[in-house]
Amino acid sequence: MLKDYLPRDIYNAIIKSFSFNDITEVRMRVNENIIIVVKNKKYYLKDENGAFIKANNLLIENFITKASENSIYAYNDNIVNGFITLPKGIRVGICGSIVTNEDKIVTIKDFQAINIRIPHFIKNCCLMAYDYMVKDGEILNTLVISPPGSGKTTFIRDFVYQLYAHNNSKNVLIADERNEICSINSGEPAIELGGFCDIYTNCSKKFAFKNGIRSMRPDVIVTDEIDLERDLESLIEAINSGVNVVATIHAKNLNQLKKKPTFDKILDEKFFSRFIVLSSDEGPGTLSNIYDEKLNCIYCR
Amino acid sequence: MKWVLITILIFVIMLIAYAVSEQYKDRYDFYNNLKLFLNQFKINLSFRQEKITEFLNKTTCKKQFKIFIEEYKKFLQTNELNLDKIKVLDDADKKELVDIVTNLGKHDTKSELEQLNGFLLIIENKLQLANENKNKMCPMIIKLSLLFAIGLAIILV
Q1: I need a labelling partner for B5 at 20 to 30 A (CA). Which of A259, B33, B53, B137 fits?
Q2: Which of A63, A89, A117 is the last residue of a domain?
Q3: Which residue of B has its CA nearest to A4?
Q4: Where in the sequence is the domain holding A164, given as residue range(s)?
């Protein structure tokens, strides 16, 4: 897949030393060695003589130009949010100099680094938790907790698929703010999600929740990386409208989550019936604990 | 027999004259098409925001400008631009064209529009010159060729 975007020598060096199926990240920083991440371990990319291959600004600029199909203007809405999504769900995080105009981010220029994240669709990775999340066919409001890179997105993506696999015909609205869950390219999801999904991509959760509830009549909204401060109102609106929510949040564990200011309100109001904690202990997506709405541990690894 | 040969000679001279004058017309057509192309691209930026490849695929064109579009498509895949086949352009023209091709699509919408306006100014000037040359040279070439052919015919008779 990356063949179309990388110079031939770099692509060949990657496939010579690594299996593409194992790679989770390719990191390039201007004038620094290219790093390949495989199963949470970092390796420097070497050429055929064993010398480290460094990235430069031309390499990064060319990659972004190709990733945007030579049409930066068409991808600028993504670029200002710091990423471009390639086919097959590959996400390219972008760092560089931020151009602003009257406090509004106009674009990113003088690219300094890119992080190419290669998703791995792991079917059945949420099966152990599935029965805790769905009771008598009804989906319980669930918050999936884990630090970055621990498989939250893979988990909820599989959950959506499992609903379909378990013949649960609930209408699922996916609020995919950064096009990470479904990796839609030209209107087509890169992965099999089943036949009951409606998807909003590249829009705020506020928009997706408000308009989705009004126009798509979802039974459940699935979303990634909520911000308890910013998105609380949307969450409350959805839950009070009778729409269930399955969301993920960044936190190392439940104790860390408890320190967040609005978490008390979430607990008091019992917005969520399940809190699922993932870790990377045995690879990304390791199911650590499941808690009920009173934070009693109902599954402990 | 002699008259037949003289008629053929006049016909050949006029054909060459026509071909030479066509160069001026083709150059004018090329810049006219390029101006239309850039204007259409400006509209695309403001509304549909189609990617360059999609935009190029929808561009209808003929003759020299078609060669340019085909080369542009190849450039997007290979990063190599070969404009040698475009006969109506000199080296300086080709450099300007390389500038356009290598810079389109590299910026956000606002910067693209500003850049396009700059390109359009250059192209407008080129188009105007091409038009003046076409209007001046084409009739002159035809007239001179006709005079030359008639003169040659008289000498031969």
Answers
A1: B137
A2: A117
A3: B77
A4: 127-300
